[in-house]
Amino acid sequence: MHVVATAGHVDHGKSTLVRALTGMEPDRWAEERRRGMTIDLGFAWTALPSGRELAFVDVPGHERFVSNMLAGIGPVPAVMMVVAADEGWMPQSAEHLAVIDALGLGHGLLVVTRCDREDPELAIEEARSEISQTCLGQVEAVAVSGKTGEGLGNLVKALERLVDSLPPSPADGPVRLWIDRAFTIKGMGTVVTGTLPGGTVAVGDELLLVPSGHRVRVRGLESLKKRVDAVSGVARVAMNLKGVDLGGVTRGMALVTPDRWIGTDTIDVRLRGAPAGGPAREAIFHIGSAAVAVRVRRLGTGTARLTLSAPLPLRVGDRAILREPGSRRVAGLTVLDVRPPSLSRRGAAAAAARELSGWPDPPTGHDLLRRHRFLKRDDLIVMGCEPAGRRVGGDWLADPEHWESLGTDLSRAVDEHAERSPLSPGLPVESARQLLRLPDKRLVEVLVRPPLRVEANRIHRPAAAPRLPAPVATAVRRLEEELGAAPFRAPEAARLAELGLHSRAVIAAARAGALIRLAEGVVLPLSAENLAVEILNRLPQPFTASEARSALGTSRRVAIPLLEYLDSRGHTVRVDSTTRRMRARTTG
Questions:
Q1: pLDDT digits over 513-545, tens only?
Q2: Residue 74 half-sphere exposure, CB side, CA atoms within 13 Å?
Q3: pLDDT, average across residues 211-230
Q4: Which end of the chain is more exposed for a tag (fewer CB within 10 A), N or C?
Q5: Distance CA 377, CA 524 (A)
């Protein structure tokens, strides 16, 4: 299915056109039919000659019902701009076009109605001139008469071409359906409707109602008045919900896939065409069918921080509208950050403006990481970006440049602590976390690199190693040369003695940090630690001792104490009695 919204001045024949195309009276309230005026959203549908189903969201054109118009046009991917040939371009034509442009809708069609009353060419020329200056650009134009049926065949063909131009909607994406109607049906309970822009909903699915936070279950589904077991966007959908009464649902709420959206009441945005104003003012924020009051704090010429009166499920890259209360002036915006950092520090707002001004539209995961320094992989996905940056431990991703600088900062912090407290056994790990503003204590341990060490939850730099006697230093070099081709095949005690590494020499070399003493008579060169981490990182996780032994090309005599050594160094973590997994740094 595809969904198209109407737009245009009041009484220019939008509803008449929808009736002529579908043979249906748009689904409306009785009050509208009595007054002969569209005051709320109407819905109708038809099958195109290709067999594809096309639904229309018919929006009100009257200036007093601009909020209803925004609720209808917000979730749809394409628009049919309607202008009457006998009246031409009018005030609400311009206002609806401003909304379309603010939302960044790039797919549309110009329909000039009442061609039986007036030659449509002038109206077409005037409307195209206005539309060409917006994101719609050069659109196809069709002249029709809803009364006589003239041009309807051409319009149907044009709608086929419009549908062909629409990008596919991912059926496997997370669901976010903005509710535009809620009512009850006897024997069924609460029913809501909306335009599903993407994802798939099925009977039995659990969804989250935002902002109330209620979990509801889909008891039944309809699309175009047909009962279905599942429906994928783009589509008009009616859902029978279990778990919420009608009093708990209103237009502007959203049904979303649990744990796949961030409900936020603070966002940073890029504004387009925003009216001039002071550094902070009130406005109405429109997205989908939602309309909430917001406080606007200007950051720079084209950026602002919005504080919403109620949390909404938003993602980076969302397009929305700001409207001045009591005014028809609108400004478009793109959501840049749904979890922006605090602006409490002096100069933070100006720094944020400089940073955001250089971001692309929409920003990428790399942009978000540069700003936040650290984000969990799943959080970045939920924010609306592909994972980026460097994986530094567990699920944490880091901005690579910042991560590299932290290694230097940690080394400096350890040395400064030693100068201030020479009798202290080292800098506490938690103190290092706070100094470096790391979100997780485990990241401190990942940052620790030789010669720094972590012992008893403190970081220290070992005292300068004693100078090795020449015979011992020579023996260590012989060991390194002998194990060059097979670095984990530790020599037996007899061979160590032949190399000059008798028991006292091994102890001296280990104390000096010249080799690794894994157990009595089991020693490896220093390079073995990093090499083992690199090899084990390539194994499927978790792995057994046998799998590690095979990958390292060594014996059980060496593999078991080596794995225990890697445990003590924080490279590996036991999963259970037989398996381990890596905690080493990798690049994401």
A1: 788 999 989 999 988 988 999 899 999 999 999
A2: 30
A3: 93
A4: C
A5: 36
**pLDDT tens digits, one per residue of 82-105:** 999 999 999 888 888 888 888 888
Q: How far apart are CA 588 and CA 585, in angstroms?
A: 10
**What does the alpha-carbon distance between residue 124 and residue 136 come to, in Å, rounded to a whole number?**
15
Tens of pLDDT, residues 294-352: 999 999 889 999 999 999 999 999 999 898 876 667 888 999 999 999 998 899 999 99
Which pLDDT score is estimated for 154?
Answer: 95
Sheet strands side by side (includes 543-544) = 543-544, 579-582, 572-574
CB 57 within 8 A of CB 4: yes
CA dist., res. 168 & res. 166, Å (int): 6
Reduced to 3 states (helix: H, G, I; strand: E, B; else coil), residue 241 is: strand
Pairwise CA distance, residues 376 & 365, whole Å: 11
The count of other CB atoms within 10 Å of the CB of residue 9 is 23
pLDDT in tens, 24-53: 876 444 433 444 434 356 788 889 999 999
How many C-beta neighbours within 10 Å does residue 345 have?
Answer: 9
Q: Residue 31 and residue 34: Cα distance in Å, rounded? A: 5
Residues β-bridged to residue 519: 522
Nearest to 423 by CA among 450, 454, 458: 458
Q: What is the separation, in whole angstroms, between the first and last Cα of the chain?
A: 38
Structural domains for the chain: 2-165 (3.40.50.300), 176-256 (2.40.30.10), 262-388 (2.40.30.10), 400-460 (1.10.10.10), 470-582 (1.10.10.10)
Give the β-pairing of 108-113 and 319-323: unpaired
